[in-house]
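Q: Is it fine to ask for two folds in a single conversation?
A: Yes, each is treated on its own. Send the first.
Q: Here.
A: Result:
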Amino acid sequence: MDTVAEAVAYDAMDHREVNQRFVDDLLAGGPVGTRVIDLGTGTARIPILLCQRLSEVRVLALDAATSMLDLAATLIDVGGVMDQIQLEHADAKALAAFDDAMCDCVISNTLLHHLPEPQRVLGEALRLLRPGGRLFIRDLMRPASNAEVDRLTELHAGNESPEARQLLHQSLHAALTLEEIRDLLSELGIDPATAQATSDRHWTIDARK
């Protein structure tokens, strides 16, 4: 999403139900604290929803695409939560500029499947968390067959633009399976059972450091 047009096209996709469910599940799973970091925030739709629900929360929303952050700034203003969300241009794989144990909760939605080494982001997320802090990460789950990729793409993006359908199709192919993400968690010393399938196309990690 390197251009304004790409950011606008992505934001125009109908992610309302998915974003709302992310926030609902995050809050239903337990406290998030007051200091939250969102890795790969995109246009900050999820932090906006979260801050509209919890006035005490402050979110540091990071993304590597300035086009996304530019649009996010406008949406945060419209959403009435400018005093709760701080946007930062940053690569989630390399966050050395950010302090250890600086937050209560790290969240991320559908970022890892874009990255060749997702374990690096998971490691950085753990470093940023205080002891006892919460890791809540959701991403797409790779189906077992090409036919299932086609079925899920038609089911969930059949009414979207051809570009949106292609994006979901490619993302499902690129995603990790539940077994693969559990293996990564084990390597990092996190209970693999904290990753669970949470929809027909998503897995979710909900763990404490």
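Q: Second one now.
A: Result:
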Amino acid sequence: MVTVFGSGRPRGRGKTGMAHDLMQYSEMVDRALRGVVRTALERIAEEGLPGQHHFYIAFQTQYPGVEIPDNLRAQYPEEMTIVLQNQFWGLEIDDDGFQVTLSFGGRGQRLRIPYQSLNSFLDPSVQFALQFGQPPEAAGDDEAADGAETAPADEPAATAEPAASDGGDNVVTLDRFRKD
């Protein structure tokens, strides 16, 4: 179990008395946890999904390098959640992201998703979830990236709770993992 204390954000000495995080721990943790997603995808690309494992992957559709068909970008202008379970094809993994073909309306469509665009990764079969903070490129001027977050060790793991969206599709909400 990984527990991350604090955000690792750079801070000046002042109200908190903490020095700047010159080690950039939040970036290290974020990179390592995105590596967990990459390793999981590499395994299923080589071996298929073992047992009851399946993945819900939420990503920012407007993030640079995301390649999705225009009709999907219009339907999901900010965030999209895909499911890798029974019907996906051509999963290819590289250093920066992955490509996969999924069926939308009975038609296969190819998606390219950079790891940096990920908002969350969930394998509900084992109640494993990662939620990623906003990447530095997408953070506002006054807001630093949160880095990756994990559920605290003393909280029970969440299960996927589908919620109906405007289009009637099921999406997984991970609000339990969001920090205020």
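Q: Anything structural to flag on that second result?
A: Two points. The chain has one domain: 25-177. The chain has a mean pLDDT of 76.
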